[in-house]
Amino acid sequence: LAGGTAPQLTTIDTSNNYGQGLSGTIIGKAIRGTPPEGVLIASKLDCDPETGDFSADRMLRSLEQSLERLGVDRLPLLHLHDPNELTYREAFATGGPCEALSRMRREGLV
C-alpha cells in the first residue's frame, strides 16, 4: 500500500469485527496514518459482540476503536455493521445508531 504497488486499489474496507480488530491494525500499519492518494478507507460501526448493544454510545466507542487502529482522525465512509439486527424504530430512536452517525458527521469524524 505505502509503496504504491496496487494502483488498481481504490477502496479499503474494514471493521472491528474482522479478525477481532486485527484487520484495522494491519491496515493502520500499512498506511501509517495517511492512505495512499486516491484510496478511500471505509469502516463499520459494530454492535458490542457480547451484548448486541447498538446504542449511540456503543457506536461512538466503535468509531474510536476504528480510528485508533487505523491511525487516522476521520473516515470518509462509515457503515453500520449488520443493521438488519435492528428494527427501524431502534435504528432511528433517540440514543440509537443513526443519532450517533449524525453526531459523528457534525463533529467532522465522518
From TrEMBL:
The protein, known as: Aldo/keto reductase
Organism: Lacisediminihabitans profunda
Location of the NADP-dependent oxidoreductase domain: 10-110
Family matches, as SUPFAM superfamilies: NAD(P)-linked oxidoreductase
A GO MF label: oxidoreductase activity
GO cellular component annotations of the record: cytosol
Transmembrane segments: none
Domain of life: Bacteria
Organism lineage string: Bacteria, Bacillati, Actinomycetota, Actinomycetes, Micrococcales
